[in-house]
Design a protein that fits this description.
Length: about 190
Amino acid sequence: MSPCEMCFQYEQILKAAPSLLYAIDKDEKLIFANLRMLNLLGIDNISACNATLYKRMAQHTAWIEARIESLRDTDLEVMHAGTSQYAITEPSITDKRGFIFYYEATRLPLKNLANEQIGLIVILTDITSIKTLGAQVTSEIQDLPNKRESIRPYPPSVYRNTSKPPNFLIIEDNALVQQATKAILNQLG
């Protein structure tokens, strides 16, 4: 398999990734995006993105512009610093409809063969369901003292007369098992 064929396969794998994945150059132009990112931006291919990535986000996503600017600032800061960030929990993103999303970000500076900074790859993994579930569990744990009922060793019986022990009919062929069962029931009263 030639290096070009391998690159094509890697590109296809990255396009199908379940996270939002994009790469930008130093001028904030989109140079790669997976299918989820293209869908978010409302385009079919990268050449349809005629503005910078962040302008396109502001025009075609429901995300609030202030949060897009914050995302841009963080991306550019990492790109200029040239150091990678892995699994950083981003501040929440609230869209114009009031929905809240949580992402975990990985940012990897892109360098050419001469080790010059040429761009940035960003992977935004949606952790909204994890955060939401975590908040629900925390809320339930905090509410436990209010929900506790008195715990009884035995459930109350409608038919039981507490002044005399209950009667049991045990049908068993084996004499040894009969004796063991009788001993257990006697110990239980």
